[in-house]
Design a protein that fits this description.
Layout lengths: L13 E3 L3 E2 L4 E8 L5 E7 L5 E2 L5 E2 L10 H11 L7
Antiparallel strand pairs: 1-3, 2-3, 3-4, 5-6
The structure holds zinc ion.
The site of zinc ion (ZN) has 8 residues, from loops.
């Protein structure tokens, strides 16, 4: 299923409302299709990806996911250690 298309008619003319967080690891956007009149909710599962401090610095606590985020994690660790290449 494509997240950018109406689940009923396949139209891309979707209108989104503002994001609502359920507090249970999920959030949704209310969505209306301008072509067929479908109305519903588009759901997203939230995945913990780390902490930052109040200055926006990454604190290393990132969930590794099947290896594909390794570069991102590596960068986050490098940033947290101050090794950002700005020598
Ligand atoms: Zn539709």
């Amino acid at each position: 299923m494509n997240e950018d298309k109406c689940p009923k008619c396949g139209s891309e003319k979707l209108k989104y409302g503002s994001c609502e967080h359920t507090g249970m690891g999920q959030l949704y956007y209310p969505v209306d299709c301008e072509d067929c009149g479908f109305t519903g909710k588009q759901w997203y599962a939230l995945m913990f990806s780390g902490f930052t401090d109040d200055k926006g610095n990454d604190i290393v606590a990132i969930v590794l996911k099947e290896g594909k985020d390794v570069v991102k994690v590596h960068d986050a660790i490098a940033n947290a250690l101050g090794e950002t290449g700005e020598t």
